Amino acid sequence: MRSERMVLPLLLAASFLTFTDRAELPPLFTTVADEFAVDAAVVTVAMTAYVAAYAVGQLGWGIAALRVGRVRLLVIALAAAAVGQLGTAIAWDPVSLTLARITAGAAFAAIVPAALVWIGDNLDLRSRGAAAANLAVALSLGMTAGTAVAALAGEWGAWRAVPASAALLAAVLAVLLARTGEPVRVGPGLPVLAGFRVVLGDPWVVAVLLLTAVEGALLVGVFSYLPVAAEHGGAGTLVAGLVTALYGVAVIGSSLVLRLVLHRVVPAAVLGIAGAAIVAGYSLLALRTDAVAVAIAAALLGLAWAAGHVQLQVWMTDAVARSRPIGAAVFALALFGGGAIGAWLGGFAVAGLRFGLLFGVSALGGAAFALAAAMSRSRYREREG
User: Fold this and answer.
1) What is the CA radius of gyration of the chain?
2) How many CB atoms lie within 10 A of CB 254?
3) What is the DSSP letter of 159?
4) Which residue among 34, 192, 324, 339 is buried most deeply as judged by most CB within 10 Å?
5) pTM, to two decimals
6) Residues 288-294: what's their mean pLDDT?
7) Which is nearest to 23 in space by CA: 381, 376, 339?
8) DSSP 220
């Protein structure tokens, strides 16, 4: 029983590491490009591939978990992530870097969904809420730490130490989880194809997925280019990473404030606020990309994530009440699939140093998201009491 109680802290640590990994490459675009003697836009391909692998991996791991159990799956995923991070640390050109990032992205895709399901399966309702809140904090802290540490390592010319350290931590977590002795709880086989038909045949589910894809493009994909934009605006690698890291600080702070007022504000209004924050952040960046502007924009985008993403998660949970496991998988696929598209399109803008165009279009996307999300959510009728 004591070893089983250790699972949750290990899950939080693995989730922290997952978002640290997600944040480690963007502050290093210029540093890695200089070492490989290529343009920074070439290195951004590795980021796009990572996000795409993370998106697609959600489905594969979700199905695999039904066969091997959550904890065993996490052990396998962390071991694979360690391999991907080690490959990143020893990468010798853009191709080897991209292959390593694909491996890491596909492996880390298993962690957060499996942690959420473990929390739902093993904790009572009261404990579940506290654990989910702790998970959200771990993710935000991971992204903040990953951005700041990568920027610091890049400034010192020691960027390879970041993935090397992450590989060691992933291996340690895999060993510790394997030693918990937590019994494997394997669910019965689900009619996967039937579940997909039920979920994707619902117009409201499709609407939420489309909004989630737009959110992913703006807050996962395009957001990745804030550090390189700050460098283009005159900031050094360290400063660019630190001001971008304010995103994670804003997510945590905004979440605490929103928790106090959410019961007084309708969900449609919260989604509108999220969209307005996206518009404000990217509009500012379309005009200027100095360190101060990037810091303000990062904070606004952190507010947008804290307000908008949680609302989309809750909305999706209600809309797919009949098939939540499949719903969770396609939700993550939409989020990071949108992120991959945003990163891919952003790469073209970075190649031509057209940051004003990239962020201007993103501001327009934020306006469309705000209107569509607020109007759709106001018309939706909740299905659970």
Assistant:
1) 20
2) 23
3) T
4) 339
5) 0.81
6) 94
7) 339
8) I
- Token reading at 301: 């985008």
pLDDT surpassing 60 at residue 256: yes
Gap between the Cα atoms of 363 and 377, Å rounded: 21
Checking if the pLDDT of 10 tops 70, the result is: yes
Q: Cβ(316)–Cβ(327) under 8 Å?
A: yes
Query: Alpha-carbon torsion 148, 313, 58, 279, what sign?
Result: negative
Element (DSSP H or E) covering residue 164: helix 161-178
Nearest to 138 by CA among 289, 17, 41, 279: 17
**Residue linked to tokens 């922290």:** 16
User: Above pLDDT 90, what percent of the chain?
Assistant: 41
Residue 320, pLDDT > 90, answer no
Distance CA 289, CA 119 (A): 41
- DSSP letter string over 260-322? HHGGGS-HHHHHHHHHHHHHHHHHHHHH--SHHHHHHHHHHHHHHIIIIIHHHHHHHHHHTTT
∠ CA 286-101-132, nearest 5°, is 75
Q: Is the pLDDT of residue 45 over 80?
A: yes
162, two tokens: 């970041």
List Cβ neighbours of 175 (8 Å cut-off, separation of 6 or more): none
One-letter amino acid at 204 equals W
Residue 239 Cα distances to 44, 141, 242, 287, angstroms: 20, 18, 5, 19
Residue 366: which pLDDT band, with cuts at 50, 70 and 90?
A: very high
Inform me whether the pLDDT recorded for 121 exceeds 70: no
